């Protein structure tokens, strides 16, 4: 299994949890290709030097944003939005209330007082199916993404598969839960074995103290950070291992879940090529 210490980290002043999905071993003896897909926490606090490095050196040309409409409107336009060569796409993995379908089209003139009064609850809600009530809270949340927003999960994966020659950054707020589920499915398509997917997911634990401190500094996330201790925010390998086990039991694995939700063979070939060829 890959060591929890890795050179895949992309060290930036404005993020805590950015790493490249390249360099992971695959079941056929290959490795994923660096510089294609990165996973990250929120990009709102990138510095000018960070933006220059991501765009000019790493070659980022697309951002796949998994946050809710409320999060994006409250955090405001991130610095990468000032770079015209970078395309931004939004796919929330949480059920949303309201009329918005394209947050980036309306964000400039949409008043914050138009947000639901209980918007804070929509940042990290716990959607629980009756037969999953006994599962760990993280696992229940991950099953909720797949159950409530399968359309958005599939759309996000399609966006990752069509990034062209440049790199794509997929992120949410912390880069561990919503991002973790989308990345796990992408790596499964690329042929990365499950134990390596679990290890990559758990790497966020190495930076959890810095990550919680960063989010606590934002009014958008401070309440959630402060009402729970750091341990409750820490990703555990067992959570992702359990999610993958449930996908095996219920769908014949991640690829079976994808097939059942419209992410067919052509989609999988495109995403695999993005990460492998």
At the fold tier of CATH, the topology name is Protein-Tyrosine Phosphatase, Chain A
CATH superfamily: Protein tyrosine phosphatase superfamily
Count of separate structural domains:
1
Number of strands: 5
Shape: globular
CATH-scheme architecture: Alpha-Beta Complex
* SSE ordering: EEHEHEHHHEHHHHHHHH
Tell me the β content.
Answer: 5-15%
Structural class: alpha/beta
End-to-end distance = 23 Å
Mean of residue pLDDT values? 88
**Cα-based radius of gyration, to the nearest Å:** 18 Å
Which stretches are poorly predicted, pLDDT < 50 over at least 5 residues? 99-103, 119-127
CATH C-level category: Alpha Beta
Descriptive account of the structure:
With 277 residues, the protein is an alpha/beta fold. The protein has helices at residues 48-58, 69-75, 103-106, 137-148, 150-161, 178-189, 194-202, 208-216, 222-227, 230-233, 237-251, 254-260, 265-276; strands at 19-20, 37-40, 60-65, 87-90, 167-171. α6 (178-189) runs antiparallel to α7 (194-202) and α7 packs antiparallel against α11. It is globular and about 45 Å long. The protein starts with 18 loop residues before the first strand and ends with a helix.
Features:
277 residues; alpha/beta; Protein-Tyrosine Phosphatase, Chain A; five-stranded mixed sheet; 43% helix; 8% strand; globular
Task: Give a brief description.
This protein has helices at 48-58, 69-75, 103-106, 137-148, 150-161, 178-189, 194-202, 208-216, 222-227, 230-233, 237-251, 254-260, 265-276; strands at 19-20, 37-40, 60-65, 87-90, 167-171.
């Amino acid at each position: 299994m890959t060591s929890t210490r890795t050179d895949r980290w992309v060290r930036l002043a404005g993020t805590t949890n950015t790493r490249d999905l390249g360099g992971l071993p695959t079941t056929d003896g290959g490795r994923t290709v660096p510089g294609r897909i990165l996973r990250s926490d929120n990009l709102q606090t990138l510095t000018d030097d960070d933006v220059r490095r991501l765009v000019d050196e790493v070659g980022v040309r697309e951002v796949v944003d998994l946050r809710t409409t409320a999060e994006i409107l409250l955090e405001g336009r991130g610095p990468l939005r000032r770079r015209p060569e970078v395309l931004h796409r939004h796919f929330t993995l949480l059920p949303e209330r309201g009329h918005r379908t394209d947050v980036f089209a309306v964000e400039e003139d949409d008043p914050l007082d138009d947000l639901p009064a209980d918007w804070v609850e929509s940042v990290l809600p716990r959607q629980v199916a009756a037969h999953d009530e006994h599962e760990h809270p993280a696992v229940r949340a991950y099953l909720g993404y797949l159950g409530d927003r399968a359309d958005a999960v599939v759309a996000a994966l399609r966006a990752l598969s069509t990034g062209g020659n440049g790199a794509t950054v997929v992120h949410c707020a912390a880069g561990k839960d919503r991002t973790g589920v989308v990345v796990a499915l992408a790596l499964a398509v690329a042929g990365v074995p499950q134990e390596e997917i679990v290890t990559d997911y758990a790497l966020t634990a190495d930076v959890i103290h810095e990550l919680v401190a960063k989010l606590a500094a934002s009014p958008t996330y401070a309440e959630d950070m402060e009402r729970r201790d750091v341990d409750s925010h820490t990703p555990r390998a067992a959570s992702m291992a359990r999610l993958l086990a449930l996908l095996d039991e219920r769908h014949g694995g991640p690829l079976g879940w994808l097939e059942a939700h419209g992410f067919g063979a052509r989609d999988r070939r495109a995403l695999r090529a993005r990460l492998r060829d």
